[in-house]
Amino acid sequence: MARVILHVDMDAFFASVEQREHPELRGKPVIVGSAPDERGVVATCSYEARRYGVHSAMPSRTAYSRCPQGVFVRPDMKLYRRASEEVFAVFEEFSPFVEQVSVDEAFLDISGCVQHFGSPENLGHALRGKVRERCRLSCSVGIAPNRLLAKIASDVNKPDGFFMMPFEREGIREFLAPRKVGILWGVGGKTQEILMRYGYRTCRDIQNASPTALATILGETAAATVFAHASGIDASPVQWQDRAEKSVSREWTFLQDCTSRDAVRAKLLELVCEVGRRFRREKRWARTGFIKLRNASFDTITRQAPFPSPVCDDISFRHLMLELFDREWPRSASRSIRLAGWGVTNFTSSPESFAESFFEAPGALSPEIRRKRELLSSAIDALPSAGSIVNAAPPLPGILHLQ
């Protein structure tokens, strides 16, 4: 049976949620991110602000210069996560096969669900209507025979739009032909520059290209992928089983570049507590931890290492964070630090994932010590200001990023 894939993208999600919660913001250019007098960027903005050339990842100061009448709002990630849970609950009413790409974007495999709605178009319109009715938010939907085309389709009539991609091979090729190669997966900025240098500007140019000539330019693997995508060929499945959170991390952008080793170290210790409290909301253990440091030149390093055994307590998190930090700081000591971050990943549902035996990894916790550390961390979580117990240094001005 032919696949039918739906891609749904919430419209200006953070800004739309703010406008939903604060009616006085409706119709105004809402800019979610750092304040214009701070060092930070725009997370997203409403379509009213986009008319002035404001877009995500733009420095907030630039956004203000383009749209001084804009209403700047600090991100409220708890609010956005609750709204995300609301919309994903709607998605799951239309298909059990939901791949969450981000808090505001998903693929649905609706191949076996279309019959209940009469047609893919009916299902797509019903989903958009349900999101609007129940969540008071708008979304754009694209339907196609694969993920690549569904993603492209959802962007055709944005915002608050719907588009049904052709399902016949020739119709697909004809639809893609005049479009820039940059819409294809696998064609980033650098690849697009290379292709344009050789005269490949549109999907039609790729469709008519010699595979051998493309391979000479891009290499065999990349050329084969781009050649297939230019004709709308994509066999990637909807990864509905991977909706679970893959990492928990926190980042802090200093308002002024920080050269103090102690200050950066203290901030990372605070972030460990933030990550620990968030991580322990669910019953899980982490196998890997990582730190992130970005200097004033925007050079970013990320270093990770495994825990000796799966853990979820702040003591183990701190030990590994400090080990990674002490190992990396001498290389960064002569630089000013703009951003610091800590996170954990590679989750497991049981601390017994690595057998407790004579063959345990060096440094692995005994069951008794592990349980004591977990109980202590949980007790600290219940206190009103847990972060101050671990680190009593005065807070440094900056911006917290939740991920």
Description:
The protein is of the alpha+beta class. The protein folds into three domains: 1-167, 2-Layer Sandwich (Alpha-Beta Plaits), CATH 3.30.70; 170-230, Orthogonal Bundle (DNA polymerase, domain 1); 245-402, DNA polymerase, Y-family, little finger domain (Dna Ligase, domain 1), CATH 3.30.1490. The protein has 15 helices and 13 strands. It has helices at 13-21, 47-50, 60-66, 77-94, 120-135, 147-154, 169-176, 189-197, 203-207, 211-218, 220-230, 261-279, 314-332, 367-381, 386-390, and strands at residues 5-10, 30-33, 42-45, 71-73, 98-102, 105-109, 139-144, 162-164, 247-258, 285-295, 300-311, 337-348, 398-402. It has a five-stranded mixed beta sheet. The chain has a five-stranded antiparallel beta sheet with strand order 11-10-12-9-13. Strand 2 (30-33) and strand 3 form a beta hairpin. It is globular and about 65 Å long. The protein starts with a strand and ends with a strand.
Low-confidence stretches: 353-362, 385-397
Proportion of helical residues: 25-40%
Please give the alpha-carbon distance between the first and last residues. Answer: 38 Å
General form? globular
CATH class membership of the largest domain: Alpha Beta
Rounded to an integer, what's the Rg over CA atoms? 24 Å
Instruction: Give, in order, the helices and strands.
Output: EHEEHHEHEEHEHEHHHHHEHEEHEHHE
Query: What is the average of the pLDDT values?
Result: 85
Total strand segments: 13
Number of separate structural domains:
3
Strand order of the largest sheet: 5-6-1-7-8
CATH H-tier superfamily of the largest domain: Reverse transcriptase/Diguanylate cyclase domain
The biggest beta sheet reads: 5 strands, mixed
Strand content: 15-25%
How many H/I helices?
Answer: 15
Structural class: alpha+beta
CATH topology of the largest domain: Alpha-Beta Plaits
